[in-house]
Amino acid sequence: MKWLFAYDHKFFRKGQQFFSKQAFPYEMWQRYLEHCDDLIVTGRIQKLNENDTNYSLSSGNQLTFVNNIPDASNLGYFLPDNAAETALVKLRRLMR
């Protein structure tokens, strides 16, 4: 069974690994992974700068990260056929 974890959190990517500054180390995902086969995590993913420190590794087995939450800082986000709707359609396809 696949589960989806969607949250407006900034995850940081370096290569194929994903990091979190505060809230989501890999150990935290274990409570979800006890109940599902795969967990798809969607949030706002940004590139991790080489100088950034104090980040916890968030990625690991049974996790897939998807950069699918658009930036809601412009008016287009609130219009019909906006980026949020498009993102939801893509997530629905992943969950099948």
Name some characteristics of this structure.
96 residues; 21% helix; alpha/beta
Please characterize this protein's 3D structure:
The protein is an alpha/beta fold. Helix content is 21%, strand content 35%. The chain contains two helices and five strands, in the order E-E-H-E-E-E-H. The protein has a five-stranded mixed sheet with strand order 4-2-1-3-5, with helices on one face. Strand 1 and strand 2 form a beta hairpin. It is flat. The chain starts with a strand and ends with a helix. The model has no long low-confidence stretch (mean pLDDT 85).
How would you briefly describe this protein structure?
The chain has 96 residues and is of the alpha/beta class. Helices cover 21% and strands 35% of the residues.
Oligomer category: single chain
pLDDT < 50 stretches: none
Strand order across the biggest sheet?
Answer: 4-2-1-3-5
Rg, nearest Å? 14 Å
With helices defined by DSSP (H or I, 4 residues minimum), what is the helix count? 2
Q: Which structural category fits the helices and strands?
A: alpha/beta
Task: Produce the secondary structure layout.
Blueprint: E1 2-14, E2 17-20, H1 26-33, E3 38-47, E4 56-57, E5 63-67, H2 83-94
Parallel strand pairs: 1-3, 3-5
Antiparallel strand pairs: 1-2, 2-4
